[in-house]
Each structure stands twice: as C-alpha cells, then as structure tokens.
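Ticket #4471: structure output looks truncated?

Reporter: J.K.
Steps to reproduce: submitted the chain below (408 residues) through the standard prediction queue, then opened the result file.
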Amino acid sequence: MPRIGGAALLALFALALAARLAAVLRVGLTSVQFGDGPAYLFAARFLATTGEYPSTTDVGFFRPPGYPAFLVLATLGNPSNVAAAKLAGVLVGALSILILVFLSARIFRSRGLAIATGALAAVNPDFLVVASDVQSETLFLFLLLAAAFLLLAAVDRPSSSASLLSGIALGLAALTRPTALVFVLLLLAPLLDRRYPRRVRAHIAGAAVLGFLLAVCPWTLRNAVRFHEFIPVNDAGGRAFYEGNSVWARRYYEIGTRAEYARWSVAMDRDIRERLGRLEAAGALSPRGRSRAFARMGVQDIRDDPGAALRLFARKAWQWARPYPTTWFWPARVVVLVGIFYGALTVLAAIGLARPERPGVCAFAAAVLVLSLAVHVLIIVVWRYRIPFWDPVLILYAVPGGAKILGR
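Returned output as attached by the reporter:
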C-alpha cells in the first residue's frame, strides 16, 4: 500500500470536517429536524439515566442500541446536548473519509487515486446530508468501512487479529442497523483467497465470524433474558416488512406531492396503531410475537395480489438503484443536479469495476451492492438507507474509472 503522507491526510480530514460542520451549521447546531432523531435521543437519555435500554422507543418496537449508545458516549452521558451529538457525528464522518482513502490505496495501490477518492468523499452531498443531523447513518457508514478495510488488511497480511476486529466492527454495525446482518456471509470471503493455504484462510474467516459473534451475542443474550425470546438485534423486522410490502407501500408509489405524502403518512400511522390495538386486545404479545404478526400481515397482502407485489418489488428496486431522489419531495433543481452527479458517478464506477486489478475485491464490492439492494427491496427502500451501502463503492470505483477515461 502506498504511503499517503501526513500532510495529505490532514488536509483531507480538515476538508471533510469543514464540509460536515458547514452542513450542521446550516441545519442548526442544536436543532433536530430528522424525523427519527427524537426516538434516538429518547433511547439515549433513557439509557444514560437508568442504565437500561427501553423496551420500546417507538410505537410498537424498539430501535437498535448502537446509535443511542454512541450518543451516550459522545455526549459524556448527556444526550440532551444535541450540539455535542452532532459534533461527534461530524468527527466520525470525517474519520470515515480517511478509511476510504486507505481502502483506495490498498485496492489500487495509487497515492493519487487515494487522495482523489478522499477529496470526492469529503464533499459528497449524501455524506453531508446524513452528517448534518442526529442520524445513525454516519456511525453506520464508519463501522461498515472499518469492517471492510480491516477484512481486506487481514487477507493481505494475513492477520487473524485484523480479521477479528473486522468482525467486531461489522457486529457493531449490525447493532446500529440490523440490515448489516446480511453481510455476515461476506466475512467468509477470505476462504476464496487462493494466495494462502486452506488452513490460513479458514483461520482468517473464522476469526472474522468470531469477532462478529463477540459483538452481537451479548446483546442477543440480553434480549433472551429480558424477553425470553430470540431477538438478534431488535423487534422491528416484521413491522418493516409490513410497511414495505403492504397496500400502504403500493399507495406510496401513487403519491405525487408532499401534501399527498403527509396524508398518506397520517393514514398509515393510524392503520399501524389500530392493528397494534387489535393485537394487544387479543392478548399481550411479546416483541417477537408482535413482529411476527406484522410479518404475517405483509405476507397476506402479497398473497392477496401477487402481481401487484411483483410490480412493487420492481418499483422498489428502481427507486433504490436510480441516481436521483424522490421527484415530488425535492425541488426540481435538486433532483436534476443530484441526478447528474450520481448518474456520472454510477457510470464511472461501472468503468472502474471493470478494471482488471484485484478482481476478488471487485466481486466483493459487487456483492455489497447486490446484497444491500436485495435486503432492502424485501423490506423498505429509502434513498437515505442506500447511502452507507452504495456511495462508498461508487466513490471508490468512480475515481479510477475517471482516471481510466483520462488515460492516467
């Protein structure tokens, strides 16, 4: 891996820090505009005050503990200090850019490409948006990138200790956003690296899986003790499946204005509350039982109209993969500018992924794109959810793709 140099790293970190701080100041250092922000802050305050995690953070489910725990640590036990929480997110977001620099250097072995990758990531619009408020995506992005870098370093050395840390990072990512659970399969990627004997490959992969279990199992055990059920991370899976596959998801794609979205949101929330009331009236349901009940409701809606369900899957897949955000939610100029930027980024990334060096890493990156799309199409697709999964891959490979076009 080429040496980047302290001055270059410091400059990239300063650029990323300044860009994120500007985004925070634009939103407001002490204001919380993100819709899920209050729930995260409530969970963090409850944890800081009682030493326990709340059984519910929202109507009918509790959120993963990773981000609330981060808020407690970042604010030194005072999650009501929104400014400190946001500044911690700014710092973590800037550190993520350095991990991308190191990933690029290790993959492409080019100091110039690594620095260009860091510069592009430092001002990437999506990264700035998620860093501007109390959102879990900033922490989630950092943990995913750390897991990827450590796993790559583990197979390049080879090193069981780096692999163990990679699994721990992925486990912490899963405790922040449970969709990261699907990437457990990728911890077995070292088994396919034919540079080393099978025994060495097995040790690296096994250490990664062990690290993941060390991070996740204590929380899963806590859930088992508290609820007497197997709940790996949290109990929102069935609810997410219902919201993403019921008639409400189909109606979402008929929305054409923000006013229609507001009405749809109120009506869906009322439906959820009514269903929860009926479930409670039928008998006190456990968290897992409640989640499974909503999953069955979603499956029933799919069975009632399989053709509509297939069309819904296709629309969700397109919404995830398209290079522009929701047209009726954002102003036209934002949609156009973002579409141009991400359209170009996607084309250049496709060119970069076609480069001959390190085909195994290219396959790994492609697997990240496919698995993240698949798991979200099965549940809920939101542009914000895509950012930690797709943006790093697009940026990493768009820079060498652009360099290839320029003949450099």
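Triage note (M.O.): checked the attachment and the full token line is present. Residues 198-227 form the longest helix (30 residues).
Status: closed, working as intended.
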